[in-house]
């Protein structure tokens, strides 16, 4: 219970950073556990990024089996999508980097 | 020589079983070689003979039938909830989420991922990794690559009975779509059951047109409204003017009444620059040019008869095959006629007779294309019979430049919108020529065989790179031109027509010498 506040703090801190548009925590089945965006957008991000993360992870492992994926960043014209993968969960943050 | 072997057998021994026995070989016939026969042959020394001991195989290619593929994505709306949780029930989902949030694994994972994530977020906020450091460096122009063009895509008429692609129009925003008008221009030879439909193609999908336009009579010309990209103007084979709104669908939104429309196919239709963006004008071989407002399309707002004797007799009128309008010169327009004469007109003239300002003659046949140079509007290009000619408004007796007489008729032509000295022409032998007269005057800079049948129309996209040309079988080919032909060269603007100015001055001097003869010739031509 005490540790639960750590989670709250962490997520709140992340969301309050400059340029952050949305934060989501999704489990491996695509169920949004915590999200600051609406459900349909979250589910869409979850589905697409989950596949991409698995592909990226397998790419890294194929090249070097001792290596593993720690972080994935996708920079697009409008914003940057950052994905931190875990065994069961995905932490996804969409940020508009300052220009 | 007959080879005969005789053996004897008794009659009583017929039918008896065969008793085989061995005996040594017996020479029956010996034929010695005849050297005289050898004289009929010539000896060959050495003799090369290839022998291969292998399995004989053959190679065969077969092209499978076209297989249409489509890529589709799936959009998930809800995540994969476990079976006992009903995703629509708010209580159950909240309960599920609360359960997950209490999980030890979850807490550890989030805390750890959170710290990595924060690091990257802060990084993003600290430095812009895409910052341009070397803004002042200019790009070095590389202009010595050979000019080339390649076909990007081909759009085929999906109908069984193929029709000619008679006109093309690019979508005004973004140029991702192309409207193609299909009709059969052979007089009364359109096959029964020919469809009247014309199509709008999306450049990404050549398998199926994006939208079909269904008029009551096949369309000869088609133009997007440059102000409102949903509105399309079409000129029909029976002389009517039709208007579509692509948001409303494939059927005609507005149609002019038959009584007040043209009496011949509408060969030219152009949108005018007006505040409302609803005005257009059209020309046809019946000798009339009509102005329309599409809000009230039942009647034309104005009609001009192309009678160059200025008597406004429809019988004397020349049939119009092409129409030209430049928005920078809104009161003037030009008409190319079937008789090979270009008529320059002024819309704002007081009387109808004064609307016709002057004529330019020089072609032997119908003028299929007429366009002012986008950089030098006083000069215009005409394409007709076997040549393409460039004229200047100041020089009325003849064109200032012309190509040689080709082996095939020229069917359409256009200036490049980015390079003042480049223009494109299409011919009935299926070739597209790209001319660059600061580079080479006698021949095209690039000549491409696009297809085996005749090419009928041509349209260049506004960026000067993409060209679409339509053929007699309804096939529209999209070509991309190399950057050498689509980026402006240094000094080109100055060079392009400065030579023409010089030659014009020379022409004027010649004119002064021959004034008597020239005028006489002029009168004959315009009569």
Automatic annotation (TrEMBL), chain A:
Any one annotated GO CC term: cytoplasmic dynein complex
SMART domains for this protein = Robl_LC7 (SM00960)
Does the record carry Cytoplasm as a key word? yes
Per UniProt, subunit arrangement is: Homodimer. The cytoplasmic dynein 1 complex consists of two catalytic heavy chains (HCs) and a number of non-catalytic subunits presented by intermediate chains (ICs), light intermediate chains (LICs) and light chains (LCs); the composition seems to vary in respect to the IC, LIC and LC composition. The heavy chain homodimer serves as a scaffold for the probable homodimeric assembly of the respective non-catalytic subunits. The ICs and LICs bind directly to the HC dimer and the LCs assemble on the IC dimer.
Which keywords appear in this protein's UniProt record, sorted alphabetically?
Answer: Cytoplasm, Cytoskeleton, Dynein, Microtubule, Motor protein, Transport
Main function? Acts as one of several non-catalytic accessory components of the cytoplasmic dynein 1 complex that are thought to be involved in linking dynein to cargos and to adapter proteins that regulate dynein function. Cytoplasmic dynein 1 acts as a motor for the intracellular retrograde motility of vesicles and organelles along microtubules.
Give the signal sequence positions: none
Q: Which family does it belong to?
A: Belongs to the GAMAD family.
* PANTHER family noted in UniProt: DYNEIN LIGHT CHAIN ROADBLOCK
Cellular compartments annotated:
Cytoplasm, Cytoskeleton
Roadblock/LAMTOR2 domain span: 7-95
Gene symbol here is: Dynlrb2
Q: Specify the protein name.
A: Dynein light chain roadblock
Give an example GO molecular function.
dynein intermediate chain binding
- GO BP term (any one): microtubule-based movement
From TrEMBL, chain B:
Q: Which Pfam families match?
A: WD40
GO-annotated molecular function: dynein heavy chain binding; dynein light chain binding
Q: Identify the domain of life.
A: Eukaryota
Please tell me whether the keyword Protein biosynthesis is annotated for this protein: no
Q: Where is this region: Disordered?
A: 497-527
Identify the InterPro entries for this entry. Answer: Dynein_IC, WD40/YVTN_repeat-like_dom_sf, WD40_repeat_dom_sf, WD40_rpt
> Gene Ontology terms, cellular component aspect?
microtubule; outer dynein arm
Query: What is an annotated GO biological process for this record, any one?
Result: cilium movement
The places in or outside the cell where this protein is found are:
Cytoplasm, Cytoskeleton, Cilium axoneme
Keyword NADP attributed: no
Q: What is its main location?
A: cytoplasm
The family this protein is said to belong to: Belongs to the dynein intermediate chain family.
Name of the protein in its database record: Dynein intermediate chain 2, axonemal isoform X4
Record gene name: Dnai2
